[in-house]
Write a structure and sequence with these properties.
Distance between the termini: 52 Å
Number of domains: 1
Number of strands: 0
Structural class: mainly alpha
Length: 151
């Protein structure tokens, strides 16, 4: 079975990378998006426009597809995603912190969960995960630059 999946991945590496980018993009963008929407919500009385983070099941499904996770890996990753989501939601609702403090804490939460996830992945999956993380950083940098230039 490993050989079949490797053949499928090797046959279309671009599709595999794009799928992986999509899965991790959703996860990371959700984390960063809530920060932006949190700031907007503080300026407005209603937080009805706040961005909804993907559910742990959605994240695990996307990661499972993109990284070819086993059922065991999915079962081990899901509680990590659930814990991360809970921590991010708690952080989002915390009005006692300044924006830069929230950003630091968010980075710490994401780094911690990424470390736990990487410990579950095999070498090939870790490499794919790292590539997607790098692509996400670049996309976030572009978004920040575009946001800054549009204001």
């Amino acid at each position: 079975m490993k050989y079949v999946s490797r053949i499928l991945i090797a046959a279309n590496p671009l599709v595999t990378k794009l799928c992986l980018v999509l899965a991790l993009t959703l996860t990371l963008v959700a984390g960063f998006t809530w920060m932006a929407s949190s700031a907007a919500a503080q300026d407005q009385e209603s937080s009805a426009n706040a961005t909804k983070m993907p559910s742990p099941d959605e994240v695990v499904h996307l990661l499972g597809t993109k990284l070819n996770l086993s059922d065991n890996q999915k079962a081990r990753i899901k509680p990590i995603i659930e814990e991360r989501r809970q921590k991010l939601q708690t952080l989002r609702s915390d009005t006692s912190m300044r924006q830069f403090q929230k950003k630091r804490k968010m980075k710490s939460i994401l780094d911690d969960s990424d470390k736990k996830i990487k410990a579950i992945l095999n070498d090939d999956q870790r490499k794919q995960y790292a590539q997607v993380e790098q692509q996400m950083r670049e996309q976030m940098k572009e978004r920040r630059q575009n946001r800054g230039s549009s204001n």
